[in-house]
From TrEMBL:
UniProt family annotation: Belongs to the colicins ColE2/ColE8/ColE9 and pyocins S1/S2 family.
GO biological-process terms attached to the record: bacteriocin immunity
Protein's recorded name: Bacteriocin immunity protein
Example GO molecular function: toxic substance binding
Origin superkingdom: Bacteria
UniProt source species: Pseudomonas alkylphenolica
One Pfam family hit: Colicin_Pyocin
Alphabetized InterPro entries for the sequence: Colicin_E_sf, Colicin_pyocin
Keywords on record: Bacteriocin immunity
Gene3D superfamilies registered for this protein in UniProt: Colicin E immunity protein
């Protein structure tokens, strides 16, 4: 997986693929593979909930990759942060 320096370097589709990769790695590999992905996720999303968006969402059912992307996108827009690169 090619990790990019900021969220605005990802298209929404690429970021969705990144999150799906995290879910896959979480169920298939050791923490030494997962942890760098989670650290990168937290660093580029800048959302105060960080990885809680994946592991402990505020509302049950909002941990699906599509929901995580939607929450991040809406939060970034509401807080004047740059969004995803155009598709």
């Amino acid at each position: 997986m090619n990790l990019k320096p900021s969220i605005s370097d990802y298209t929404e589709t690429e970021f969705m693929d990144f999150i799906k990769h995290i879910y896959f790695v979480n169920g298939s590999f050791d923490d030494d593979v997962l942890n760098p992905l989670l650290h990168h996720f937290e660093a580029i999303i800048e959302h105060p909930a960080g990885t809680d968006l994946i592991y402990w969402p505020e509302v049950k059912g909002l941990d699906a990759p599509e929901q995580v992307v939607r929450i991040i996108k809406e939060w970034r827009e509401a807080n004047g942060k740059p969004g995803f690169k155009a598709e």
